[in-house]
Automatic annotation (TrEMBL):
Organism: Reticulomyxa filosa
Database matches in PANTHER family: F-BOX AND WD REPEAT DOMAIN CONTAINING 7 (PTHR19848:SF8), WD40 REPEAT PROTEIN (PTHR19848)
Superkingdom of origin: Eukaryota
Full protein name: WD-40 repeat-containing protein
SUPFAM superfamilies in the cross-refs: WD40 repeat-like
């Protein structure tokens, strides 16, 4: 009886072993299949990457070709336009009067009349009537070279005055009413040549900035003739 029981136990164990082996084989097959699937997907991904890189390269090359073509078209167009412009240029008018170098000019319209003002090494500020091709004023108030001149839109829009602002090597900034032939204001403060001036594009051109050989930039209130601020950052003229 015990022998029979032992045989049955052995048979049962054999069956369990066979089942386990079968399951392991199935698992192994599934793993191998999964590996092949992964490998196949990897190959697909690599192929897609390669195709994408080729496409990107083609797109970049096309963009560069288009850029070169557009640039060349712009160059060709600009060159043609420039040549046409140069060939069409001609001397219209000549204003003679200064006795030395002219350092600065400005253009403006007052009451539908066109004017040019000029500042010169001969220490004068002059005003020219473009329509009638003649000098209408000459101001001799500066004691040295006139470096920069600007028409003052502030005076015209606020007081209907025809005014020029000038800066000079004599360290001053001056305002001239060329309709009534008189000096209006003098701005003092710089300790060296005032080389450049510019009216503000805001607040109706009420403010003026000036650059000087004293290494400073100053901001002025044209209405009050006061220096509002001094900028000291520069280390040379």
């Amino acid at each position: 009886v015990e022998i029979e029981k032992l045989k049955k136990d052995i048979e049962s164990k054999d069956k369990e072993i066979m089942i386990t082996i079968t399951e392991q084989k199935t698992t192994f097959v599934e793993i191998e299949k999964l590996k092949k699937d992964i490998e196949s997907k990897d190959n697909e991904i690599k192929k897609i990457k390669q195709e994408t890189q080729v496409k990107q390269k083609q797109i970049v090359e096309q963009i560069n070709e288009n850029k070169e073509e557009q640039t060349q078209n712009i160059i060709n167009t600009s060159s043609t336009s420039d040549l046409e412009l140069v060939s069409s240029l001609k001397l219209n008018k000549t204003f003679t009067g200064h006795t030395s170098y002219v350092w600065s000019i400005d253009y403006s319209k007052f009451d539908n009349f066109q004017f040019i003002c000029s500042g010169s090494n001969d220490e004068t500020v002059r005003v020219w009537d473009i329509d009638n091709n003649k000098q209408i004023q000459s101001f001799n108030g500066h004691s040295s070279y006139v470096n920069c001149v600007k028409f003052s839109s502030y005076h015209y829009h606020n007081n209907r005055q025809n005014v020029i602002c000038s800066s000079s090597y004599d360290k001053t900034i001056r305002f001239w009413d060329f309709k009534h032939n008189k000096q209006l204001q003098i701005l003092n403060g710089h300790t060296s040549s005032v080389n450049g001036i510019e009216f503000s594009p805001f607040n109706g051109s009420r403010y003026l900035c000036s650059g000087s050989g004293d290494n400073t930039i100053r901001l002025w209130d044209v209405e009050t003739s006061k220096s509002l601020h001094i900028f000291n950052g520069h280390t040379n003229r």
